[in-house]
């Protein structure tokens, strides 16, 4: 299975926190005409996202609207993956 980070642009509020945490994978937010000119982030497709798994997981956890997820690329990116880390609530201890 090849995992790839995915930003749900319907939900993204364009805060660029993911880009601050993991610029290797997440682009700085910019205006997107497909979404009425709202600021949206996106992912870089020229790098292996799994090489920076920890940083992507941090971005998933810290995204204020929880719109980042891992997807299974081998299924055409349609399968959303959930990880224990990704479903943890802020402030809960890491087990
Ligand atoms: S942290 Fe979340 S809401 Fe903020 S730009 Fe990234 S994907 Fe969008």
Question: Mind explaining what this structure looks like?
Answer:
This protein has 95 residues and is an alpha+beta fold. The protein has one domain: Alpha-Beta Plaits. 20% of the residues lie in helices and 20% in strands. The strands form two sheets. A three-stranded antiparallel beta sheet has the order 1-4-5, covered by helices on one side. The chain has a two-stranded antiparallel ribbon with strand order 2-3. β2 and β3 (38-40) form a beta hairpin. The radius of gyration is 13 Å and the shape is globular. The two termini are 25 Å apart. The mean pLDDT is 88. Bound molecules: iron/sulfur cluster. Iron/sulfur cluster is lined by residues 7, 12-18, 26, 29, 41, 63-65, 67-68.
Distance between the termini: 25 Å
Radius of gyration: 13 Å
What portion of residues is helical?
10-25%
What CATH architecture would you give? 2-Layer Sandwich
Low-pLDDT stretches are none
Kindly identify the CATH topology. Alpha-Beta Plaits
* SSE class: alpha+beta
Name of the CATH first level: Alpha Beta
Order of helices and strands: EHEEHEEH
The structural domain count equals 1
Ligands bound here?
iron/sulfur cluster
Widest sheet, order of strands: 1-4-5
Largest sheet: 3 strands, antiparallel
Mean pLDDT over the full residue set: 88
What is the count of DSSP helices, taking H or I runs of 4+ residues?
A: 3
User: What sort of overall outline do the alpha carbons produce when their principal axes are compared?
Assistant: globular
Q: Report the count of strand segments.
A: 5
Q: Give the quaternary arrangement of the chains.
A: single chain
